Amino acid sequence: MADTRHCFHCGLPVPAGLDLTARIDGEDRPMCCHGCKAVAELIGASGFDAYYRFRELPPGEAPAPPPGDDQHWRGFDDPETLPLFAATRADGRREAVLHVEGLYCSACSWLLENVLRRLPGVDEITVNTASSRLHVIWRTEDARFSAILGTIERLGYRPHPQSLTESFSPRHRERRQALKRLLVAGVGMMQVMMFAVALYAGAFQGIDPEMRSFLVWVSALVTTPVVFYAGRPFFQSAWRGLRSGRPGMDLPVSIAVGGAYAASLYAAVTGHGEVYFDSATMFVFFLSLGRFLEMSARHGATERSAAIGQLLPDTVRRIADGSDDGEEIIAVARLRAGDRFVLRPGERVPADARILNGRASVDESLITGESEPVPRAAGDEVTAGSINLDGALTLAAERVGQDTMLASISRLLERAQAERPAVAVLADRVASWFVVAVLAIAATVGTAWWWIEPGVAFPAALAVLVVTCPCALSLATPAALAAANTALADRGILVTRSRALEGLAEFDRIVFDKTGTLTRGRPELERVLPLSEEIDAGRCLTIAARLESGSEHTLARAFPRLGNSGNSGDSGNTPADLRPVPGRGIEGTVDGERYRIGSAEFVGEAASAALARIETVAASTVVFLGDANGRVLAAFELRDALRDDAAEVVRTLRDAGIATAIASGDRSRTVQAIAGRLGIDDARGGLRAEDKLAWVRQLQAAGEKVALVGDGINDAPVLAGADVSIAMGAGTTLAQSSADAVLLGDSLGPLLEAVELSRRTRRIIRQNIGWAIGYNVLAVPLAASGMLAPWMAAIGMSASSLLVVLNALRLRRGGATAGVRRTPVETARAPSPGVLEASP
Amino acid sequence: MSVLYFLIPLGLVLLGLAVWAFFWAVGSGQFDDMDTPAWRVVMDDDRAPPARDEEKEDER
């Protein structure tokens, strides 16, 4: 057995005579089966090779989790902190739910599950890709929480422990409850329908009275849980509506279900008369189904737009009381107002705090949407969620947890999100008088027949009630919306509010917020201009790359990362003596010479002079490289690159007769340049959030419907003010929550599909409502005249609602072209950039 | 036809069992995520058992 080869991927022996290999990290590795080969190649292609480097693989043994330092997470093992994040199970084990950043696809969940399972003491691990959540159960005596968190981090993901109140959310309970109700209604309906067919057949062909009564009683037995368990939400909601004096759509539903059930029960007891158990169950099932679909769409949207905890760091270096240098790492949840803490470059601010010591450039884009970093020094305040880019800071926490500005913004957004969409509000208003009308008609018909022929009075009144059941009417909109939401989600568009579909179908002007919507939102190196004879462009770039390699500044990302630069053949490290000067540039030693890179003023007077000479493309930033003697070596021109499909989207929208515009906070010159490149009609720069909102209001006052595409949180009021708002998924998480729809991918293309699909949705909703109303107008007189037996009414009503649902489901099928749907391969590749960045 | 008096109640009992099983499945979280399990089959690595089952590994 000594010479048996082992599968590089799973560690099992390779069967004799099998010659399969996969290329990983530049080497051909043996594989034991095609499955492993496929997975290994997928991992390689997705940039996950690091996984194979991390693990130690003695032949025949499962991959071990990467070793490393869990120091950073130690705070979570603290006996005071742990109970905040991990629940104790009945058997003494701990369980916790983590939100994992960077978890996009099943390849990720596979990696996490398999590596974590090898951690001693970890018993169970489940990864939910849809909500980026990881559920883990471990034995406290063998494993530490910090080890689990550290392992996840070393795999290239960012774990965020969820506090217990967050992780076992009411949303979960609601969904489970709804599923149970739906199933009870579904199987109940099928059973009762079966009995009903027998009863109807019996009515025509003759049936043994005993058998009839048996079937009726069995139907009653099955219908009872459907009405009282599955139908409970309708009764509750109807009762709430009645109590608040605003009868909703659920009132006639409840009356019809309750009435049909009561009348049928009466018929069962007295032994004659019609039974409507089938109508009652069918009614409950179809309504539950519609609501379940709608709820799923709603939950999917909120789960994706991440919780506020994700935006804040999980741990903080607190300065122990009474000393000046004793630092301890604690969970942010334990940070109190007044505590002092230390923030290193690259870390996020965990609470609203005041700087006591030090100076730094702070990226506040989360709050302000402004991508330029702001210099902050002792005495200044920084808000939770901003990133300390380049300085070491000592801070005093002023507001923590729910009191931070970030938390209050997020609460505002939540409240806005909780509001009912316009369609639902309208439906409720219509329902109020619809209900009254239905009840009045039913009562009139009953009374009238009472005088003419008492025997017909009850069946006729019931037929009216059943036939006018706003079943089709109440399904018409939600069914179409739910189908459209699903279809949109398949295309990478998440609808967070129902009004998005209405709005997308009929806007006539689209306003882009420049940063991050039309452009990629990160600078790219446009060209290198050597300004000195002695040194060529490649060498300048190498020096610049090494100087910038230690920086988190947005501009630094434009330079090639060390190790990737290739062409200049360097293998240099980050210079040891880098000295970032906040807001200006970086100074450091490369190959024994001292260099400066940064703004013209920072590099020297010669650079300022050069800046005047250089002819730059509009909308670009120029960074200079100089040496310690004030000599300027090179200028780097950086420019925010356009998204690949921006031009096409703008053109298509224009062709469809939609006006395009940019409203941006950036300099007018920059904005004009981008508008020119894309052919956008109206471009306005230098606008503050209030100005943007004012402009949108002005357009609306002129009768235009405005769609807004934004990305920063400072857009939130504007997003809310527009008729419909779309956020880019790559943008600030909070902005996503305030927008009506979110584009999950990094491209604008889905926007066009969303517009097309919303137009189809609107058409289908109109058809549905038209049908439902037409059917009622036709059926009510028939029912009132006593020509329609209640069972005919029930069949008519069911057929009508079925038709409406099927019509709505067309949205899911039609147009779901293969080319548009994300293929598994694309989905699997999605995480690679993030993972690569985070990998050591 | 009298066999129906037996078969229908039997059907209802089975129905009850099915509903109970479904409630259990929902309660144990099997319906919380409808996306990942579909892919898990394709991404399989479960032939390599967890580290604590090392004896089984040797048997192979």
In short:
Chain A has 840 residues and is α+β, with helices and mostly antiparallel strands.
Poorly predicted segments of chain A: 54-66, 304-309, 563-571, 730-736, 815-840
The span between the termini of chain A is 36 Å
Q: Could you tell me the number of beta strands of chain A?
A: 29
Can you count the beta strands of chain B? 0
Identify the most extensive interface between protein chains.
A-B, 45 and 35 residues
The low-pLDDT segments of chain B are 44-60
What structural class should be given to the helix and strand makeup of chain A? alpha+beta
Tally of distinct domains of chain B:
1
Task: Give an overview of the whole structure.
Chain A has 840 residues and is an alpha+beta fold. Chain A folds into six domains: 1-64, no CATH class; 71-168, Alpha-Beta Plaits; 172-304 and 427-480 and 760-813, no CATH class; 313-347 and 351-399, Calcium-transporting ATPase, cytoplasmic transduction domain A, CATH 2.70.150; 493-518 and 643-744, HAD superfamily/HAD-like (Rossmann fold), CATH 3.40.50; 522-642, Calcium-transporting ATPase, cytoplasmic domain N (3-Layer(aba) Sandwich), CATH 3.40.1110. Chain A has 29 helices and 29 strands. Chain A has a seven-stranded mixed beta sheet with strand order 17-29-28-27-18-25-26, with helices on both faces. In chain A, a hairpin with a 4-residue loop joins strand 23 (620-627) and strand 24 (632-642). The longest helix of chain A is centred in the N-terminal third of the chain and has 36 residues, at 170-205. The two termini of chain A are 36 Å apart. Chain B has 60 residues and is mostly helical. Chain B has one domain. The longest helix of chain B is centred in the N-terminal third of the chain and has 24 residues, at 4-27. Chain B is elongated, with a radius of gyration of 21 Å. The interface between A and B is large, with 45 and 35 residues.
